[in-house]
Design goal:
With about 180 residues, the protein is mostly helical. It is built from five helices and no strands. It starts with 6 loop residues before the first helix and ends with a helix.
Length: about 180
Amino acid sequence: MFLPLPDKMEYLTAKSLHIVFMVAWFAGLFYIPRLFIYQTEANLRQQPEKKAVIDQLKLMANRLWYIITWPGFVLTVVFAIWLLILNPGYLSQPWMHVKLVFVSLLIAYHLSLHWLYRKLQRDQYPMTSTQLRFYNETATILLFAIVFTATFKNTMSGIYGILGIISLGVLLSLGIMLYKKFRKN
């Protein structure tokens, strides 16, 4: 027999599930570009090693994308909507508007990764491995922006958050350039 959960319990359940599936979604968003980088680099190898490595990376990307990343994305959104239904007052909060802008950018990033996934599955390479390394950091920057916005819930923290995101982007870029320099040596 189904017993309805108390309001607080229902909200905390929805929030917990939202966070769990967000973690799964981000796991995919963090890892799939790494597989794209490896596939792009494997494309420069000689046969038969090239084909074997690329086939394995395509299989790994397919499983990650459709078994973890897409379900994580869909369920994150479902539980976010459930949270907003349970607490519609959030939609009148300025911090929520900022968060939803960052989430919209994250969804656009997710869809762009889907476009890249489809290209790479057809052996088309629209980006170099270095470009993919930079692009890979988009999820990290958006994660920081979303978490800090949702945690502090005020406008001033949004300003500091934007400055922090810019600083993080600069640091990540420097790290990628240093990695590339030392990797060649």
